[in-house]
Every structure is written in structure tokens, then in C-alpha cells.
């Protein structure tokens, strides 16, 4: 298994995990459930932990795919830029979740003050993960790229003469 395979195998977990953790933690806060809060915090910590190998395998994966047909350096660059932000906030959120989780066992009163900011960090993390995943998908999945009229491929049955005739109008 090379870095590209590992990157592709793991990259879904931080995105889906963040969404599930946000829903779980939001529900836990509404219901004031200590058990569900701890589960949501543990999942947020796991999201940040799995984001580490995903991030580390990103650069070697770029080296593998950047020369493949249809791969755009611009798309890789956009994905990489958002990945840097998503990874950074995921690590911060993961640490906040771990601290909140520890305090939930030691001092429930202080933990409640930590969980709400951790939830808002999770919302930011989830949003950045979704954007990053979408940009990463566009690198190889042409069907999800934003293709304007100028970027439409030429139809195979269209000849050079037909293209020139269209320009004369």
C-alpha cells in the first residue's frame, strides 16, 4: 500500500467523523447527557488523530498524481491550501476535545464550560473538512468539477471546420 492508497483509504474518516461528532455532541448538549457528550468528545479526538496520517500522506500523494492526465496543479494547490487549515483546526479541536473529556471525569462543572467552545471548533473543523474533501475529490473526479462553458470539452464528432464556422458568426 503506497501513500496515495493510504491517503484515499483514510481521508473519508475525518470528514464523516467530524459530521457525526458534531451531530452527536449537539444532541448531547441539548439533552444534557454526560455519556453522549463524552462519546462526541472521544470521536472528535479520534477525528484529529486520524487526520494526522491523512495530512502526512498528502504530499507524497501529490507527487504520485500530479503528472497523471487530467490532473490540474491548480486544483492540487487549492486542496493543499484548505488541507493545511483543516488539519490545523482539526488538531486544535482534537486537543480541546481531549481536555474537555478529561475534565468531564475530573470536574463536571469546568467541563461544561469547555464543551461548548469545543463544539464550535468542531463546526469549523467540519466545514473545512467538507471543503477540503470536495476540492480533493475534484482532482481526479472530473464529474464534480465546476465546469463553466469555457471549460467544456469539445465534442468528438465536432470537426475543425465546424469550430471555425462558429467563430465567424
Low-confidence stretches at least 5 residues in length (pLDDT < 50)? 148-169
Largest sheet: none
Helical content, roughly? over 70%
Shape: elongated
H/E series? HHHHHHH
The quaternary state of the protein chains shown equals single chain
Can you tell me about this structure?
Helix 2 (12-31) runs antiparallel to helix 3, helix 2 runs antiparallel to helix 6 (108-140) and helix 3 runs antiparallel to helix 5 (73-106). The relative contact order is 0.14. It is built from seven helices and no strands. It has one domain (3-146). It has helices spanning 3-10, 12-31, 34-56, 58-65, 73-106, 108-140, 160-168. 80% of the residues lie in helices and 0% in strands. It is mainly alpha-helical.
Name its key features.
single chain; 169 residues; mainly alpha; 7 helices; elongated; disordered C terminus
Strand and helix layout:
Blueprint: H1 3-10, H2 12-31, H3 34-56, H4 58-65, H5 73-106, H6 108-140, H7 160-168
Helix pairs in contact: 1-3, 1-4, 2-3, 2-6, 3-5, 5-6
Summarize the model shown.
With 169 residues, the chain is an all-alpha fold. It contains seven helices and no strands. The N and C termini lie far apart (54 Å).
Amino acid at each position: 500500500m503506497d501513500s496515495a492508497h493510504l491517503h484515499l483509504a483514510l481521508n473519508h474518516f475525518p470528514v464523516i467523523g467530524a459530521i457525526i461528532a458534531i451531530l452527536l455532541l449537539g444532541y448531547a448538549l441539548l439533552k444534557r447527557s454526560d455519556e453522549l457528550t463524552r462519546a462526541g468528545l472521544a470521536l472528535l479526538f479520534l477525528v484529529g488523530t486520524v487526520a494526522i496520517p491523512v495530512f502526512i500522506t498528502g504530499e507524497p500523494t501529490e507527487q504520485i498524481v500530479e503528472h497523471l492526465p487530467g490532473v490540474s496543479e491548480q486544483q492540487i494547490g487549492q486542496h493543499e491550501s484548505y488541507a493545511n487549515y483543516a488539519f490545523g483546526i482539526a488538531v486544535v479541536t482534537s486537543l480541546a476535545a481531549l481536555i474537555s473529556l478529561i475534565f468531564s471525569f475530573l470536574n463536571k462543572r469546568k467541563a461544561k464550560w469547555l464543551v461548548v467552545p469545543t463544539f464550535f471548533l468542531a463546526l469549523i473543523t467540519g466545514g473545512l473538512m467538507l471543503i477540503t474533501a470536495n476540492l480533493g475529490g475534484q482532482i481526479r473526479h472530473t464529474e464534480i468539477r465546476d465546469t463553466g462553458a469555457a471549460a467544456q470539452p469539445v465534442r468528438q464528432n465536432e470537426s475543425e471546420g465546424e469550430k471555425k464556422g462558429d467563430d465567424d458568426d
